[in-house]
């Protein structure tokens, strides 16, 4: 799971937390999650239960020891439909865990807003975020496969995270390879336009690192996991296409995504990277 790899790279380890808990030194944490989608990662992060058959009235749960401990969760997404659906799922989980008397962290708040433009966030979001971060020792910002869509670019949010929130930062993001041929560069600019991903977001790993340093970050890790992402995604979509064709269906618009992932995997012009940058406060 991509989220777990990001957490692992950032040093979130349940075993480590347990030892610190024993010594009474585990820092409390707040997480600002940028682009939480339909709530899957919200539930993963804020519930100690493994949810099975979620849409069924009587889904089961099991203790999940590898969940990082987060005391305050604030999620922001721009998509209103995803926001409403995630709100519903989180509330259903609250109700279920209350009845089952299992563990769920209730300090979870979701907002519908443009994560790329923190200067436009309303007073309620800012007030809740300020209250959340004031109660903890560590503040983290998470952006899982979303930042390259931020318009006009990802950098206003990253500078806000570092300089206003004093937050450490973790993400899965896309970077541009160092030496891209002109034909591939032209084609990539067309593809990113269709994706709705501003070209300003496509920088090399070295340029990305330099911007993080400019924002005030230290102890920066950029871990290239392209070989574990693009070809496997293309293969998965191919397998899904074969299965769907047996019943007369197909991938439809996802054919373009399959081609794109295969192209990126073959040429290496786009790199999938896990980014971790620590605040000087830590």
Polypeptide structure, described:
- The chain is an alpha/beta fold and 282 residues long.
- It has ten helices and seven strands.
- The protein has a seven-stranded mixed β-sheet with strand order 3-2-1-4-5-7-6, sandwiched between helices.
- The chain has one domain: Vaccinia Virus protein VP39 (Rossmann fold).
- The relative contact order is 0.13.
- Residues 18-23 and 50-66 have low confidence and may be disordered.
- The longest helix has 21 residues, at 80-100.
- The chain is 43% helix and 17% strand.
- The protein is globular.
How would you summarize what this structure contains?
It contains ten helices and seven strands. It has 282 residues and is an alpha/beta fold.
Give the topology, please.
Blueprint: H1 2-9, H2 14-23, E1 29-34, H3 40-46, E2 72-77, H4 80-100, E3 108-112, H5 123-134, E4 138-144, H6 155-163, E5 168-176, H7 182-195, H8 205-215, E6 218-224, H9 230-245, H10 254-267, E7 270-278
Parallel strand pairs: 1-2, 1-4, 2-3, 4-5
Antiparallel strand pairs: 5-7, 6-7
Helix pairs in contact: 9-10
Strands ordered across the widest β-sheet: 3-2-1-4-5-7-6
- Principal-axes shape call: globular
User: What is the helix fraction of residues, given as a range?
Assistant: 40-55%
Number of strands: 7
């Amino acid at each position: 799971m991509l989220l777990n790899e990001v957490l692992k790279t950032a040093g979130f380890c349940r075993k480590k937390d347990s030892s610190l808990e024993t010594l009474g030194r585990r820092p409390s944490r707040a997480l600002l999650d940028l682009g939480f989608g339909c709530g899957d990662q919200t539930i993963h992060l804020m519930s100690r239960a493994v949810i099975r058959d979620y849409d069924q009235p009587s889904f089961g749960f099991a203790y999940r020891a590898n969940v990082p401990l987060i005391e305050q969760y604030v999620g922001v997404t721009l998509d209103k439909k995803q926001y409403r659906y995630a709100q519903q799922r989180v509330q259903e989980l609250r109700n279920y865990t209350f009845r089952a008397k299992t563990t769920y962290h209730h300090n979870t708040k979701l907002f519908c807003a443009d994560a790329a433009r923190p200067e436009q966030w309303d007073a309620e979001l800012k007030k809740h975020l300020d209250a959340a971060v004031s109660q903890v020792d560590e503040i983290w910002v998470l952006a899982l496969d979303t930042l390259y869509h931020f318009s006009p670019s990802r950098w206003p949010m990253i500078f806000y995270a570092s300089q206003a929130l004093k937050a450490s930062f973790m993400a899965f993001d896309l970077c541009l390879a160092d030496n891209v041929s002109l034909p591939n560069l032209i084609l990539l600019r067309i593809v990113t336009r269709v994706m709705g991903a501003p070209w300003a977001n496509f920088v090399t790993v070295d340029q990305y690192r330099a911007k993080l340093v400019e924002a005030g970050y230290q102890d920066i890790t950029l871990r290239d996991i392209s070989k574990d992402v693009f070809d496997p995604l293309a293969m998965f979509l191919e397998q899904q296409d074969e299965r769907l064709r047996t019943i007369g269906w197909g991938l439809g618009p996802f054919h373009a995504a399959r081609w794109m992932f295969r192209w990126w995997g073959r040429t290496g012009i786009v790199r999938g990277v896990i980014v971790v940058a620590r605040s000087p406060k830590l």
